[in-house]
Design brief:
122 residues; mainly beta; 7-stranded mixed beta sheet; 4-stranded antiparallel beta sheet; 11 strands; 0% helix; globular
Length: 122
Amino acid sequence: QVQLVESGGGLVQPGGSLRLSCAASGSTLDYYAIGWFRQAPGKEREWVSCITVSGNSIKYTDSVKGRFTLSRDKTKNTVYLRMNSLKPTDTAVYYCAAGAYCLESVNAYDYWGQGTQVTVSS
């Protein structure tokens, strides 16, 4: 069983950048696909990005393509989400999750972190 802890959220102005971290313990991330999701107030949890178990494929939702970059550091057992050119519409609680497959559905993931708040505002 893997435990996930997100960090790196905060308040940033529009156009700014943040890097979120998803640190794993209890198991190596080598065995899992990792997804990033976000949830804004009053809205459903939304898939943002994911990486396959092999690391050979990374996918993004259209609204973040070209702005967000997912990466994985096996030596640190951590996955990152670099977010550039942030917009107020990116404001949400961001979650990382681990599962068997890199899919858009929340149901594809078995383990979740507690989330980190990202607020984009001037």
